[in-house]
């Protein structure tokens, strides 16, 4: 029996709970193993709406362990619009390194809202079509941003926002099983 793939889920702080839980519930219901890493210096994070969550680990502990996972999910949230002001924080430096490492290794890359923009910042989307939040579209330099609800291009699965994740979720599950 072939084991389902293992997924590293990145949750920014604060994270959009609607987006995060669509992935987690779908993985859980389909027997796909995952671990949630806070893009923070603590495992305690909040949703955009203020609900406290304690996740599995922090992103610093994912660095150097990328080979233990087959896929990466970037779960967007209200931390992203203020990313530039916090780009030098160790956990955000780790975030960009982890994204680049997963991308360079050709692993499955999944994200919504500004997820494609974060992937694009590292250069890993070169030649790929990506779906991204309309406000983040001008920031896409390496890949090609479209106006589609979601895009699947090779190992990249991207959606415009949390309300369009459902359009790619069945394809994500298929790729991870």
User: What is the β-strand count?
Assistant: 11
Element string (H = helix, E = strand): EHEEEEEHHEHEEEEH
Main sheet attributes: strand count, strand direction, barrel closure: 7 strands, mixed
- Indicate the structural class: alpha/beta
Q: How is the CATH topology named?
A: Rossmann fold
User: Roughly what fraction of the amino acids lie in strands?
Assistant: 25-35%
> Which quaternary structure do these chains form?
single chain
Descriptive notes:
- This protein is α/β, with parallel strands linked by helices.
- The protein has a single domain (6-174), classed as Rossmann fold, CATH 3.40.50.880.
- The chain contains 5 helices and 11 strands, in the order βαβββββααβαββββα.
- α1 (17-29) links the parallel β1 (6-12) and β2.
- The chain starts with 5 loop residues before the first strand and ends with a helix.
- The relative contact order is 0.17.
- The model has no long low-confidence stretch (mean pLDDT 96).
Any chance you could write out the topology, listing elements then pairs?
Blueprint: E1 6-12, H1 17-29, E2 33-39, E3 44-46, E4 52-54, E5 57-58, E6 71-75, H2 83-86, H3 90-104, E7 108-112, H4 115-121, E8 129-131, E9 144-146, E10 150-153, E11 156-159, H5 169-176
């Amino acid at each position: 029996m072939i084991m389902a793939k293992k997924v590293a889920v990145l949750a920014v702080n604060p994270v959009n709970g609607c987006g995060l839980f669509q992935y987690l519930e779908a993985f859980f219901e389909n027997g796909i193993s995952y671990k949630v890493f806070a893009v923070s210096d603590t495992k305690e994070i909040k949703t955009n709406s203020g609900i406290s969550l304690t996740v599995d680990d922090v992103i610093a502990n994912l660095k150097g362990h990328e080979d233990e996972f087959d896929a990466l999910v970037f779960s967007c949230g209200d931390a992203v619009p203020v990313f530039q002001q916090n780009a030098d924080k160790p956990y955000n430096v780790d975030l960009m390194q982890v994204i680049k490492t997963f991308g360079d290794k050709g692993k499955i890359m999944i994200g919504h809202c500004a997820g494609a923009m974060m992937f694009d910042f590292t250069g890993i989307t070169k030649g790929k079509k990506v779906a991204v939040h309309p406000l983040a579209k001008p920031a896409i330099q390496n890949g090609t941003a479209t106006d589609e609800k979601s895009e699947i291009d090779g190992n990249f699965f991207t959606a415009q926002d949390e309300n369009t994740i459902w359009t790619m979720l069945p394809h994500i599950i298929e790729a991870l099983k």
